[in-house]
């Protein structure tokens, strides 16, 4: 029988104390909680309180989190309360005891990768400890060697780097862009040599659940994919504050659905957006449905509720929770980080329908583990992947195919690391019969 359990997940302290073997699902909305239960007899909810800082150096301290509460939209922030109490009919008992154990991952979890080809630097978006970590492009963690040390790290409350899903390096000037996917709803920008806890150079307020971005420097535009309502927002490059998009690609004709990765081909004037296939309209009851993952292809200047030029979709495509995408400007080939497929898949730029990939990088030798980020380095003829599952970034020859070992590895944890892959955890339940903790992501 489990009497107590503690969780510290994804950069915030979260403690759940259970009594009497209770199975309890707690929605963790924006703030750190301590949930207290009756210590005797039937388990009853007594109080929900903000958790104290547990002092883990790999996580944001409580003071920093509290300083930004007004900018967060957690349940308690909405009510203006620090503590919420619920009492039973008999008495109130608060069990402020320490957790029996912690389930946590203190290593970086890399959701995105960008390369500054001019300065030979690799930027990795760490969505677990809330940071952007910068490495030499030639770093290579040998077997038996300690984790790779970054050249510098951007992290802290001033930086506003939180649950960020994308890092992008402007090839024109080296500026660092980072997209916040959860409570921040923003794109922050830093100079290329930023380090420590700097205030952003610019901050752009975006639609909730923005995921990936890319710049079109020729037309001075910033493209942003948004998961829901599925859309692509196109801003003026340099937009900041509350500036609105120049145009939106949105509507039922677009066939966008839970949009994630985004890539542009400036030579052929094309926009690629991949979709997970979760379709719903909150205004229409019972409208939810699922479709196979897809890649929708638009003209680069598409606007409004416009149909795609073509769609890549079907079982031959191998698409399975696709993440970031990147285009080889020379060949027009489209590289996809295929998260649940444990692979990098490559399509020709003119593929459509149920097209099999032209190449697939997959297998035990590749070191790929739930890759969600990909970047084509056309200058050095390499392709990079960031791996959510093992705290690494791996790089391959641009034309790699099959079970290919990486040319180099950036590793921020021990060898053979297996990340918890909690993602943005918002609930949990304990199954007392099977003695299992279930954590939806």
What features would you describe in this structure?
With 441 residues, this protein is mainly beta. The chain folds into two domains: 5-104 and 422-438, no CATH class; 110-411, TolB, C-terminal domain (Neuraminidase, 6 Propeller), CATH 2.120.10. Helix content is 2%, strand content 38%. It has two helices and 34 strands. The chain has helices at 62-67, 75-79; strands at 5-9, 12-16, 33-37, 45-50, 83-85, 102-103, 110-116, 121-126, 131-136, 152-154, 164-169, 176-180, 186-190, 202-205, 210-216, 221-226, 231-236, 247-250, 259-265, 270-275, 278-279, 289-290, 294-299, 310-313, 322-327, 334-338, 343-347, 359-361, 371-377, 382-387, 392-397, 408-411, 429-431, 436-438. It has a six-stranded mixed beta sheet, with no helix packed on it. The chain has a four-stranded antiparallel beta sheet with strand order 7-8-9-10, with no helix packed on it. Strands 11-12-13-14 form a four-stranded antiparallel beta sheet, with no helix packed on it. The chain is globular, with a radius of gyration of 22 Å. The two termini are 25 Å apart.
* Total of DSSP H or I helical runs spanning 4+ residues: 2
How widely separated are the two ends?
25 Å
Rg from Cα: 22 Å
CATH architecture annotation of the largest domain: 6 Propeller
Q: Kindly name the structural category.
A: mainly beta
The biggest sheet amounts to: 6 strands, mixed
Classify the helix fraction into a percent range. Answer: under 10%
Mean pLDDT: 82
Number of strands: 34
CATH structural fold name of the largest domain: Neuraminidase
- Fraction in beta strands: 35-45%
The tally of structural domains comes to 2
């Amino acid at each position: 029988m489990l009497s107590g359990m503690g969780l510290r997940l994804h950069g915030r302290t979260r403690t759940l104390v259970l009594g009497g073997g209770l199975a309890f699902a707690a929605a963790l909305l924006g703030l750190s909680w301590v949930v207290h239960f009756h210590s005797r007899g039937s388990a009853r909810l007594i109080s929900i309180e903000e958790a104290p800082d547990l002092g883990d150096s790999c996580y944001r301290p409580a003071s920093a989190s509290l300083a930004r509460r007004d900018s967060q939209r957690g349940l308690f922030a909405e009510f203006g309360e620090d503590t919420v109490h619920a009492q039973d009919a008999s008495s109130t008992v608060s069990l402020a005891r320490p957790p029996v154990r912690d389930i946590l991952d203190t290593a970086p979890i890399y959701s995105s990768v960008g390369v500054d080809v001019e300065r030979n630097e690799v930027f990795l978006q760490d969505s677990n400890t809330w940071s952007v970590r910068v490495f030499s492009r030639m770093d290579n963690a040998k077997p038996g060697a300690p984790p790779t040390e970054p050249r510098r790290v951007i992290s802290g409350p001033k930086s506003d780097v939180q649950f960020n899903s994308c890092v992008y390096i402007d090839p024109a000037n080296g500026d660092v862009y980072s997209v916040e996917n959860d409570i921040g709803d923003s794109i922050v920008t830093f100079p290329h040599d930023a380090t420590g806890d700097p205030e952003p150079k610019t901050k752009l307020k975006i639609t909730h659940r923005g995921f990936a971005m890319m710049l079109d420097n020729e037309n001075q535009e910033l493209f942003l994919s948004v998961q829901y309502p599925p859309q692509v927002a196109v801003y003026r490059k340099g937009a900041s504050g509350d500036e609105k998009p120049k145009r939106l690609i949105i509507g039922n004709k677009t066939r966008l659905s839970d949009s994630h990765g985004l890539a542009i081909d400036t030579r052929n004037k094309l926009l690629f957006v991949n979709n997970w296939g979760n379709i719903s309209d909150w205004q229409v009851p019972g409208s939810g449905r699922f479709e196979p993952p897809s890649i929708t292809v638009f003209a680069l200047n598409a606007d409004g509720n416009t149909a795609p030029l073509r769609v890549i979709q079907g079982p031959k495509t191998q698409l399975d929770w696709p993440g970031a995408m990147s285009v080889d400007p020379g060949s027009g080939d489209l590289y996809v980080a295929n998260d649940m497929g444990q692979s990098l898949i490559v399509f020709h730029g003119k593929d459509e329908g149920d097209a099999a990939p032209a190449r697939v990088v997959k297998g035990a030798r590749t070191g790929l583990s739930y890759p969600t980020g990909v970047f084509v380095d056309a200058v050095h003829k390499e392709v990079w992947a960031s791996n959510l599952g093992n705290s690494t970034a791996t790089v391959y020859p641009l034309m790699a195919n099959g079970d290919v070992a990486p040319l180099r590895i950036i590793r921020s944890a021990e060898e053979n690391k297996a990340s918890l892959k909690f993602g943005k955890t918002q609930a949990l339940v304990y199954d007392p019969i099977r003695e299992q903790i279930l954590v939806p992501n």
